[in-house]
## 1
Amino acid sequence: MNWLTRLFGKKPQLSAEQAQRLAVWRDLPAADLAAASDASRYVVVDVETSGLNMRTDRLIAIGAVAVEGGTIRLADSMEIVLQQSRISNRENILIHGISGTAQAEGVPPVEALLSFLEFLGKSPLVAFHVAFDKTMIDRALKTYLGLKFNHAWADLAYVSPALYPELARSHRSLDNWMQRFGISNFARHSALADAVSTAELLLALREKLQAKHILNFKALRDLEKAQQMTQWTS
């Protein structure tokens, strides 16, 4: 093992077919972030993990659903469990409900992550508390595919209070905002169920977004960044 391997880690070994799938994804045209939201496809995502430590815990599942034309496309959704070599602890399983058997028999990580990329395409990503989801997905893609994932994200944890500043202090969790808008969840802490609830929140914010002329993904991210600055300086 040379010093480069020690510094950057072992390079993932992909089969020729897997490398070709990754190359096809890389070559897809970038999304137009200035295109009208109603004419764009956004992918809302949530993850389940072995814990909350972004440095040491592992990605267990990804749930994702597309929002296109102002509609949640349930037929355009995915949920995938990554095969685990080490099962998460009992307390963790009680949270997300992914059994030890389901973890052990999950999809091999390379195949699972390639499937996620193929589902995603180059559509922008939306989540609630992006930092966690992004870090866990980024690390898994780097570990298993050798991919540096430079993708566009928008965080509803900042967008929501930017639109409803009077609720900024009292509404900090996804559950708070779900309750505010009467959003139900068929299986809280299931990756797909939470992604669908986050997508419903995105649609619940639509009227306010339109009123403020936030009509594309670029404007959505600008609003998020402005809210981050507000929170950091307040």
## 2
Amino acid sequence: MATSLLALLDDIATVLDDVTAMTKVAASRTAGVLGDDLALNAEQVSGVRAERELPVVWAVFKGSARNKLILVPIALLLAAVAPFMIQPFLMLGGCYLCFEGFEKIAGKFLHPGEKEAEIREVLKALHDPKLDLVEFEKKKIGGAIRTDFVLSAEIIVIAMGTVQDAAYITQVFTVILIAAIITIGVYGLVAAIVKLDDVGMHLVDTGGETGMKRWLGDRILDFAPNLMKGLTIVGTAAMFLVGGGIIAHGIPPLHHLIEGLIEPLTHLETIGGVVSTVTTLIVNAIIGIISGGVLVPVVTVAQKIYERMRGHPEG
């Protein structure tokens, strides 16, 4: 009996070790989506009244948790009954990351000032006395939850792709843990980001004309908008890195070609590991950018054809 108990505890410890290791890997591979998720959700809840920011973040957090409760069981069921479908979904997620990243960059050049115009429209609407603020909040929350559903699906698919060769029990615990950590982590950070300017204003208002509090408040107010820009840039770059890496790994000839190119670099003295890692990241980014550059015009043309067909139904 004692031997069986020790064996059971040993098995549990082994599973926990595997889950911890897999969670670290899965978290690193979902970095691209996480950066975008963080920046998008912080943008989505902007524009509401300051005293309503945290309640809105809480409402979106609950919606995100519901999304995970739908997506995680579906992913685990898929892994149990049709594991061969994980790789195609993973490739689809990688393509989506590259597409979205390239579309963001293309939009900056093709539609300059569009984002600023959207912000001005929101601010103008908020000053309209006829605006129903409750309905405005509901639309914000609904839009954020829909965005979260897409990004959550990407994260879970990428996590499943990371652990698809592990024991099923490890897959279950890893995906559940990733979903929980991401949901709590992302919306905790979103709450901190949206209240950052309020913290800065409080320090400025209570810090007097001079002094450390006033200086710190000014620095926070200067830093807050740059943080959002930085998150967007990092998130976009990570999309290409992660998406390109998924695509490269999912196409065996391309994967073997990259391995053949990188392998000699690993033998360089002292700096071999660093050089090979950096080179791999650069190659993944290039593949991601090229993939996005191909996908954006293809999807754009397909959308236009679809819209034209809907506008002119046959018969």
